[in-house]
Every structure is written in C-alpha cells, then in structure tokens.
Amino acid sequence: MSDVVELVDRLGQAFLARDLEAALACFVPDDDITYVGSEAGECATGRDAVRELLAGLFARPAAYTWQATSATVHTLPGGAFVIAEADGAEHGPDGTVEPFPYRITGLLSRRNSGAWLWRAVQGSEPT
C-alpha cells in the first residue's frame, strides 16, 4: 500500500508549498469531501468549504508539513482507511523548523485509473 502512504506525504508536501490546487488535487474530484485539522474550528465538508479552510491555513505565517513514518491500511472494495503516524514540522517565517508528532487518518477512494484520492482526512497531534 505504498501508494496510499505516498498520498499521505503528497498532501503534506502541498501543505508545505502552500499549494491550494495541489492539496485539492489529493481529494476526489466531486463535492463529497471533508478535511479536519488538529485545531478547533478546522473542519470543512464540501469542495468550496475545504478550499476556503485550506486557503486560510495556507495564509498563516507558518507553513506545516508531515511525512509518514508508519501506516496501517485497511482496504475495502473501492476504498481504504488509513492511519498514519508521521513526523510533522512547522516552518516559521524566520526559517525555524519545529518538529512535532502528527497522525493522519482518513478514507480514500480508488479511482478507475487505480490512483488513490482522499474522500475524508483528519490530522491530529497525539500527546
């Protein structure tokens, strides 16, 4: 399931680049998508709402990213559920990088092309 883990990392790379279109391209192309971040209020369902939330996150002074270190993937017909432990990092405007533990969970949909895309994803900071 390395392609599922690659999708976890691809979303993290889009966050670091603050690339809204690249982030949205990680989701299925219809309107039935959800993104939930680790902070209060970071919850959006529907393409327009997810776009608005991510645009706000990307406008913050710091940029965030993560890279999966391990993952559990449960597959089902046409989909998968992933729980990935990750190394997160906050990149400050002054060039500082603050590491933190991160966890990504979510539901993925397999496209006819064989590619995996997010249907719903949640990020959290385990303590």
Your description of this structure?
By secondary structure, this protein is of the alpha+beta class. The protein contains 3 helices and 6 strands, in the order ααββαββββ. It has helices spanning about 1-15, 20-25, 45-60, and strands spanning about 35, 45, 65-75, 80-90, 95-110, 115-125. Helix content is about 25%, strand content about 45%. The longest helix is centred in the N-terminal third of the chain and has 16 residues, at about 1-15. The protein has a 6-stranded mixed sheet, covered by helices on one side. The mean pLDDT is about 95. The protein has one domain: Nuclear Transport Factor 2, Chain: A, CATH 3.10.450.50.
